[in-house]
Each structure stands twice: as C-alpha cells, then as structure tokens.
Design goal:
By secondary structure, the protein is of the alpha/beta class. The chain is about 25% helix and about 15% strand. A six-stranded mixed sheet has the order 1-12-2-3-4-5. A six-stranded mixed sheet has the order 6-7-8-9-11-10. The radius of gyration is 59 Å and the shape is globular.
C-alpha cells in the first residue's frame, strides 16, 4: 500500500506524522518528528521508528526500537525508567495475603504466660498476708471462745469410780468436786453464784472444795465468796487449802470458809457413814509450817474402810498410796488451761486431768471451775465433777 504523508503549509521539512504500511514490515507506528530526530546515530530523513505502546514520555523516556534496527542490540532501560516500571508493576500486581511478602512485618506470636514461673514477690507477699490474717483471726476467735467458756460458768462432768471396799449401801454415792475457782477481780461474786447453783443442781451427797478457791485477801474478796454459804449437800461441804490460799492469807480463809458453813480439813479425817473422808494441807504450806501431814490425817484409821482423800496437788499421790488411800481427789492443773500451760502442767504432774490409777489407789484430777491469769481456756474446758462411787458388791 502506498504511503501517504501530510505536511503542514509552509513545508518545514520535518514530518509530524508518518504511517508505515504492511510493506514496511507488517507493523504500524507513529512517532513525533522531534523524537525521531533526537535519537542518537540516526540521520534526518531516515526510516521512521516503530514505537511500542504505551510510549514513555518525558525526560526519562527511553529510545524506541524500530523495524530498521534489526540485528542491533536494543538499548537497556535507564535506571529512572526501570524504577518507574517497577512502581507500575507493584501498583498493578495483586497484593499478597496479609502477613506475607518481602515487605511484610515479622509475625509476632501471642504471649502465653509461663505457668512454671515461680510466684513473684508481690504474690508471695499477698499469700503471706492472707495466711497471717487468717491465723490472727483464728487466734482471736479461739481466745474469745475460751474466755466466753470461762465466764459462762463450768459444766458438770460425771464420772463413776468403783471402790473395792465400798459397802453395797453406798453404791451411787455422789461427791461434787470443785477446784480452782480462783475468785478475784475478774471472777467475782456473780461467778461464785454460778458455781454454787451448778453444784446444788447436781443434788450431791457431799461437796469437796479442793483448793485454790481465791486469789486475794478476805478483806478484798469476802463479799465475792459470800454465795458459798448457799452450798447444800446431805453430808455437808469440806475444804482443803491450795497453793493460792497461802498467797492470800490461808489462816484467814480457813476461818472464812468455816464461817460460810464449809468444814476445813487441815490434816484431818472424818468418818462418814460408808467411808473415811480425809484432807491434807497443800505443799505450799510447808514454808509457813503448815504443810501436809499424812500421818496425822490417816495414821490411826481403820484400813478395812474405804478412804477418800482431798489433796490439792496430784503430786501428793505417792503419799496417798503409802497410806492405803482408795481414792484421791485433786485439782491444781487446770487441765493445762491453754498452750503452753498444758506442756508445763503435764511435766510437773503425774496426771493432767481425769481418772488414773496408781497401784491400789485411784487419782481423779479436776480441770477446775475457774481460771488463773487470763480468764481463758483453750482445749481444757472448766468443769465441776460429780463423782459417783460404785460398790463392787452391788
């Protein structure tokens, strides 16, 4: 096909548009004359240049390769053109999935707490405070309950004690044993009234007050002890001194309890209808020349009769065994009252509380009705014991 050219009027000598037919190599291209003239090594009027579409424009445009340049190496893209091409390709390329690709940020794994890591100082401090608070609350609660137990008054404890020499007629004989009342500034007249009412409610045949009745002088505590005059038993009430009586004026208290209707047994013995009842002073009286005298209390008695001995401290049991006593009634230990008193009392006494046997002699130790020092008992509740004697002939 013949080529056609269009030139502007005036014939400036440069072709503005040129169409190449199929005879020129089967491609059609159009190029601006200034662009063709600016190609290096090409003369004016040379065959037109075939351009690729789209054609780069601007100062960074690369020379286009024509059909007439066959066999000549095509000039490579300039750095600027390559950069532009890469940007275009990146813009049109499909985006990779999130988190992939060369520019993706490194994947961060979620933080999983290490369960094997030891507890830090803050946690240990919290746990220690919780434990300490719980221990303090338990201690306060325990002491509070122990104090309430003392102030409300002693409970009655019933114990049956068989005696070989006790006649059949005495089977079921009741002895109310009360020790360690410890009347004082805290446990006063109201407490003494509770003790008296509790004892009388058991309807005993005999009442045995085995020491440590008071912690103070008759002058200070006489009114507090006044309810003791209301004690009632078929065969009377009897009293022996404890170590605290010798701290408070024992002679005055012996006279005071006698005035209240209670019979003191100062190293003495009484023949009851079915057995002998004896009492000895406390060992603390030795410093005043008024210590226990077992020979005086038991030396000339009829050993065929059963014998019940009132002695404040359990340590006096060995003398009781030597004198053929059948049953010794004691107090003094408070059953330990509270820790560490229980450890001390256990080490200093042959029996801490309850009924025990030493040879042919039985020993019963009451925990006591009151408390000494703090009016609190823990693990050793106060009691008044009702001893029921049993005859083996019954």
């Amino acid at each position: 096909m013949p080529a056609s050219a269009s030139r502007p009027d005036g014939g400036g000598g440069a072709a503005s548009t040129r169409t190449v037919g199929a005879a020129g190599g089967g491609a059609t291209a159009s190029a601006a004359a200034p662009a063709a003239a600016s190609q290096p090594g090409r003369a004016v009027g040379a065959p037109p240049v075939e351009t690729a579409a789209p054609q780069a424009t601007g100062s960074d445009a690369a020379p286009a390769a024509g059909a007439g340049d066959a066999g000549a190496p095509a000039p490579g893209p300039t750095p600027a053109a390559a950069s532009q091409r890469d940007r275009g390709a990146a813009a049109t390329a499909p985006h990779p999935p999130n988190g992939t690709g060369p520019d993706a940020a490194p994947e961060v794994s979620p933080q999983v707490p290490d369960t094997d890591t030891p507890a830090g100082p803050t946690r240990r401090l919290f746990v220690s405070r919780v434990v300490a608070g719980a221990a303090a609350a338990a201690a306060v609660g325990t002491v509070g309950y122990g104090t309430y137990g003392v102030l409300r008054g002693p409970k009655v404890k019933r114990v049956t004690v068989p005696l070989a020499k006790l006649p059949r007629a005495a089977h079921g004989y009741r002895i109310a044993v009360v020790s360690d009342v410890h009347l004082g500034p805290v446990l006063g007249r109201g407490f003494a009234q509770k003790v008296v009412d509790t004892i009388n409610a058991t309807q005993p045949d005999l009442i045995a007050v085995v020491g440590d009745l008071v912690d103070g002088s008759v002058k200070d505590l006489g009114p507090a002890a006044a309810p003791l005059a209301q004690l009632r038993a078929r065969h009377g009430s009897y009293f022996v001194t404890g170590n605290h009586e010798y701290f408070s004026g024992a002679e005055q208290w012996v006279e005071e309890v006698r005035r209240l209707g209670i019979t003191p047994l100062e190293n003495a013995r009484r023949e009851m209808p079915y057995f002998d009842l004896a009492g000895v002073n406390d060992v603390a009286g030795e410093d005043e020349g008024q210590g226990p005298d077992f020979a005086k209390a038991l030396g000339d008695r009829d050993t065929a009769r059963a014998c019940v001995l009132l002695a404040h401290q359990p340590v006096q049991i060995q003398d009781a065994v030597e004198h053929g006593v059948d049953l010794q009634l004691s107090g003094h230990t408070h059953g330990g009252q509270l820790w560490p008193g229980n450890l001390i009392a256990s080490g200093a006494n042959p029996t801490l509380a309850g009924l025990d046997r030493y040879g042919d002699t039985q020993l019963y130790v009451s925990r006591g009705a009151g408390a000494w020092g703090p009016p609190t008992r823990v693990g050793a509740p106060s009691d008044i014991t009702l001893i029921e004697l049993a005859s083996r002939q019954a």
